[in-house]
């Protein structure tokens, strides 16, 4: 049975060796919780590193680790100390992490880190290879594994691969700094579905793909070699009930049953009933803006002295990546700042900052969330920030105020928080003041609204949403492979072709017989194409018709004396072998006077763009312009044209970085029908790759063999991968006996 393979750098397991004894417990982190519905026993497998290096697990324990992991449907990816040093602490945390969080000054560009990153991603791919089976879905998590989608796709092109990035994707101007930027993008594009927390991250990703790889993005899809890659936004949620219910149940406990920390907090409030708690919780990371938060709190005590003795900042910093330099430096800076503030302002009854540098058990986390009046979360950059969501979920009676940095992904969904710029110390001080003075009704309205949202889009919903999208991608792939014109089917079609006595073949040119070129002038027919077409046309039972949106010029040059029929300008002009060109009757081109100045205006305003005048259409090309400006202007132009053409029989075609306006009463479909009407033809075939060919596929009689080149959805009966396969298929027809 097809299964799901979840892959993350770390397995959702806590593995410890004490006195040569192994203990393995499932971890309860957000990701593991979210995956519960996806990571079901029996039909899923989680691949990742156990947290113990190969050097730490001796041979006796190896089998135990495997067995204990297997019990939780997990598979260990073996990593050595050197791997962890250079792949994890190195490339992941000293290159990608700072760069993607805009800390370019901390970013290290070491070739050996990169080499290890690649090697470890390959190690992951090898483990995947041992477990993957046809029909499996793969969901890869986060920045440590950005090359893995491509490594899997290359080996298993039919697998459905999803990738989710938990951290920000930086703007193009920052991402372009990375020496291995194209490799990273290509690695990611191995996935079929790429998920981000916010629209900004997605749009930055698209911008880099467009500018660095030159791929066109259509709404939220990228088509590469006829493969569709979809991207979407999935803002990660939390296990709402777990946080809310734990908070309710802890507050309901009798005093003696409460945790020690809870009792201490209660006691403090008894002694000093006016005291208000302001809470911050983060991993100790330079992205979290901890120092600036302390400066802001100090400034708050200066600016609002009435709160001295009455506002306590409880700051929980969880140790993290301790062997990375910046983290050590930051730790000393924070120690010093806390010391300074406490030294300057403490009284016998009051300490301004309570600083915990350790991880606390879940119950204590809840104690802090539920006992605090304000949460002060000020990351300089943060992919999402789950602490903000957990704090809101843990508020009982809807009281509490969230102050949140606008640089977090969470800020996009939590506009009821007091949003601050983490670099604006004065504004943070004011925000603390505003929070402490906020009337209860206002607190309730804000928290209620956020709680309702968090309840709805919880972490399970997030995982299901991503997973359902991945399933859709997989179904789409299955549908396409069902329509694939396999070699066996090609031979079946060839039999019918052979039996027929009168045949007509409508074949599109660019992208169907030759590779689609940025500049169509360069897409000359190869000698192979000419041989195939000549051979087909030499058979008197065949009529070969080349159908194109091009104008006559190039075809006149390449095919003038050929024995094939040429249809150009989307069906407006036609030339039969040995005859002159004829034009479809009654096509009005007066409209050009109206449209041309508009296109020229866009040409003038957008460097690198130009207008092409064809006999029956006008085209504005933007392939040479700045890609984003081009797309932006194209959208503007489309809008303007749509209203302009409202009372004319015109249509707008969007193709390959161009916008074309043409008469709507000409179409490839109509031209093809004109060719076959009134004739008795017993084999009709149409092959094409762009959407104007769809008109032929739809209008030709049902028995016609219609073939779409590429994998996008089509009304054609069959799909074929690319122009090379088309040539192969035409050879099969020629060889039919
Ligand atoms: C990355 C992205 C994105 C914290 N201290 C304790 C503790 N925690 C738990 C919190 C929360 C989690 O750790 C921290 O999550 P964040 O989202 O705030 O931050 P990162 O660790 O940086 O996570 C981030 C996230 O991935 C998900 O996509 O939101 O932007 O950087 O769940 O509760 N848990 C316990 N004791 C502690 O002392 N038990």
Global structural class: alpha/beta
Q: What name does the CATH topology of the largest domain carry?
A: Rossmann fold
Bound molecules: GDP-alpha-D-glucose
Strands side by side in the biggest sheet: 5-4-1-6-7-8-11-10-9
Termini Cα gap = 41 Å
CATH C-level category of the largest domain: Alpha Beta
Tell me the name of the CATH homologous superfamily of the largest domain: Glycogen Phosphorylase B
Proportion of strand residues? 15-25%
Helix content: 40-55%
Number of helices: 25
The outline comes out as: elongated
What this model shows, in words?
Helix content is 43%, strand content 20%. By secondary structure, the protein is of the alpha/beta class. The chain folds into 4 domains: 4-233, 3-Layer(aba) Sandwich (Rossmann fold), CATH 3.40.50.2000; 240-449, Glycogen Phosphorylase B (Rossmann fold), CATH 3.40.50.2000; 482-584 and 666-736, 3-Layer(aba) Sandwich (Rossmann fold), CATH 3.40.50.1000; 592-663, Eukaryotic phosphomannomutase, cap domain (Hypothetical Protein, Haloacid Dehalogenase-like Hydrolase, Chain: A, domain 2). Strands 5-4-1-6-7-8-11-10-9 form a 9-stranded mixed β-sheet, sandwiched between helices. An 8-stranded mixed β-sheet has the order 22-21-20-19-18-27-28-29, with helices on both faces. Helix 14 (386-393) links the parallel strand 15 and strand 16 (401-405). It is elongated and about 105 Å long. The mean pLDDT is 92. GDP-alpha-D-glucose binds next to strand 12, strand 13, helix 13 and helix 14. The site of GDP-alpha-D-glucose has 19 residues, from strand 12, strand 13, helix 13 and helix 14.
């Amino acid at each position: 049975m097809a299964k799901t393979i979840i892959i993350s750098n770390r397995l959702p397991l806590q593995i410890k060796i004490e006195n040569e004894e192994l203990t393995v417990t499932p971890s309860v982190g957000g990701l593991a919780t979210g995956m519960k519905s996806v990571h079901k026993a029996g039909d899923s497998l989680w691949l990742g590193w156990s947290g113990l290096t190969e050097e730490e697990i001796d041979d006796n324990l190896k089998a135990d680790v495997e067995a204990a992991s297997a019990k939780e449907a997990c598979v260990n990816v073996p990593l050595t100390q050197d791997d962890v040093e250079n792949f994890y602490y190195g490339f992941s945390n000293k290159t990608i992490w700072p760069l993607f969080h805009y800390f370019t000054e901390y970013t290290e560009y070491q070739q050996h880190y990169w080499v290890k990153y690649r090697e470890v991603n390959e190690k992951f791919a090898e483990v995947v290879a041992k477990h993957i089976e046809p029909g499996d879905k793969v969901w890869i998590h986060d920045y440590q594994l950005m090359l893995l989608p491509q490594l899997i796709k290359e080996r298993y092109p039919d697998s459905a691969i999803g990738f989710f990035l938990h951290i920000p994707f930086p703007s193009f101007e920052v991402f372009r700094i990375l020496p291995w930027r194209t490799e990273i993008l290509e690695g990611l594009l191995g996935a079929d579905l790429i998920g981000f927390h916010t629209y900004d991250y997605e749009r930055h990703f698209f911008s880099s793909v467009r500018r660095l790889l030159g791929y066109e993005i259509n709404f939220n899809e990228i088509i590469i070699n006829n493969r569709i890659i979809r991207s979407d936004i999935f803002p990660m949620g939390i296990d709402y009930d777990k946080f809310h219910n734990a908070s309710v149940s802890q507050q309901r406990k009798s005093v003696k049953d409460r945790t020690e920390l809870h009792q201490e907090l209660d006691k403090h409030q008894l002694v000093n009933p006016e005291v208000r708690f302001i809470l911050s919780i983060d991993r100790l990371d330079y992205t979290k803006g901890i120092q600036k938060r302390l400066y802001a709190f100090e400034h708050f005590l200066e600016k609002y002295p009435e709160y001295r003795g009455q506002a306590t900042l409880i700051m929980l910093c969880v140790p993290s990546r301790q062997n990375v330099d910046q983290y050590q430096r930051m730790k000393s800076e924070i120690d010093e700042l806390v010391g300074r503030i406490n030294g300057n302002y403490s009284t016998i009854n009051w300490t301004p900052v309570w600083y915990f540098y350790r991880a606390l058990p879940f119950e204590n986390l809840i104690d802090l969330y539920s006992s605090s009046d304000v949460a002060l979360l000020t990351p300089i950059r943060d992919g999402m920030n789950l602490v903000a969501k957990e704090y809101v979920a843990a508020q009982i009676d809807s009281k509490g105020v969230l102050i949140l940095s606008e640089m977090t992904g969470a800020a996009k969904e939590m506009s009821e928080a007091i949003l601050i710029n983490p670099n604006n110390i004065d504004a943070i001080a004011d925000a603390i003041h505003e929070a402490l003075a906020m009337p209860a009704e206002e607190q309730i309205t804000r928290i209620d609204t956020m709680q309702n949202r968090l309840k709805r889009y919880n972490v399970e919903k997030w995982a299901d949403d991503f997973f359902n999208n991945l399933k859709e991608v997989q179904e789409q792939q299955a549908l396409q492979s069902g329509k694939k014109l396999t070699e066996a089917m090609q031979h079946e079609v060839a039999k019918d072709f052979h039996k027929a006595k009168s045949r007509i073949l409508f074949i599109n040119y660019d992208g169907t017989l030759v590779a689609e070129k940025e500049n169509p002038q360069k897409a000359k027919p190869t000698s192979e194409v000419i041989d195939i077409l000549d051979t087909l046309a030499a058979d008197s039972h065949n009529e070969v018709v080349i159908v194109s949106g091009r104008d006559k010029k190039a075809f006149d040059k390449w095919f003038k004396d050929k024995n094939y029929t040429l249809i150009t300008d989307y069906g407006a002009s036609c030339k039969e072998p040995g005859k002159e060109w004829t034009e479809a009757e009654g096509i009005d081109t007066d409209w050009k006077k109206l449209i041309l100045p508009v296109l020229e205006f866009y040409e003038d305003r957008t460097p690198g763009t130009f207008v092409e005048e064809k006999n029956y259409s006008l085209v504005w090309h933007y392939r040479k312009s700045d890609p984003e400006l081009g797309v932006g202007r194209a959208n503007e132009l489309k809008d303007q044209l749509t209203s302009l053409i409202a009372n004319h029989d015109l249509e707008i075609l969007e193709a390959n970085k161009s916008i074309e306006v043409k008469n709507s009463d000409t179409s490839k479909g109509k031209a093809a029908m004109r060719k076959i009407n009134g004739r008795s033809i017993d084999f009709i075939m149409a092959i094409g790759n762009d959407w104007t060919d769809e008109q032929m596929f739809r209008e030709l009689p049902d028995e016609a063999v219609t073939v779409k080149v590429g994998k996008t959805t089509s009304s054609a009966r069959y799909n074929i991968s690319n122009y090379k396969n088309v040539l192969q298929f035409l050879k099969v027809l020629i060889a039919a006996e």
